[in-house]
Amino acid sequence: MKADKVRDLDEQELLLQLREIDERMFRLRLQMSMGQMDGLKKVRTTKKDRARILTVLRERQMAGQKQ
User: Fold this and answer.
1) Which end of the chain is least crowded, N or C, by CB within 10 Å?
2) Rounded CA gap, 20 and 6, in Å?
């Protein structure tokens, strides 16, 4: 997910996406621990998407505090 796309979403949609990503990360980690997953590419992209969402949420929180 690109940063521009993340910035276009409202706060409720971001929180929903964050929950979905957390569930996906849990399943991916479980698969990795059981040896069922081949590559780390999905884990890396999921981590980056999660970080982008958290960054945008934090930016909005900080902007709200300044006003």
Assistant:
1) C
2) 14
